[in-house]
Write the structure tokens for this entry.
Amino acid sequence: MQTSVLILYDPKDSTIIKLADGIAKGVENHNSTRAILKSIESATTTDLIDSDGIILGSPNWSGITGTFKGWLDNQGDLWEEGCLAGKPGAAFTSGRGRHSGLEITLFQLIHWMLACGMLIVGLPWSNAMKESGSYYGATATAGGNESDLIQATDLGFRVSQIAARLKIHKPT
């Protein structure tokens, strides 16, 4: 039984695209898990509903981009319908500096997922966090570095593991 994880991002900068690619590699490192990599320009509500896990990414523009906020707001009442409830979700972001509001961007993405009843997946402490990131999600600055990509890959793998476990135990 194949598991799918949607990696949905706003492609406003090249660093967020690098992180999305790293996350996709991590997802695909897990057996029987398929990464579905989509920008908000091509994604649909059905993509959200059909996936077994969702990882959202936005460049930091004093929080998520207005384009991404508009996209999420236009997905209807998914929170009320409960169609995303119980799915694992995670977040990633990129910015110009380590202390430029990266965590608030992650929190805004996480807030939307919590409102939909999703289960939030973070990152446990690792040595890579000495150089990059946050346990709230994967982050990168100034084009990203090796530690940022390791963290992105780890996040993708972690979400795919949890999505697969939840899918096996999902009531029919």
User: Anything to note?
Assistant: The first helix runs from residue 14 to 28. The radius of gyration is 15 Å. The beta strands are 3-9, 33-39, 53-59, 88-95, 119-120, 138-141.
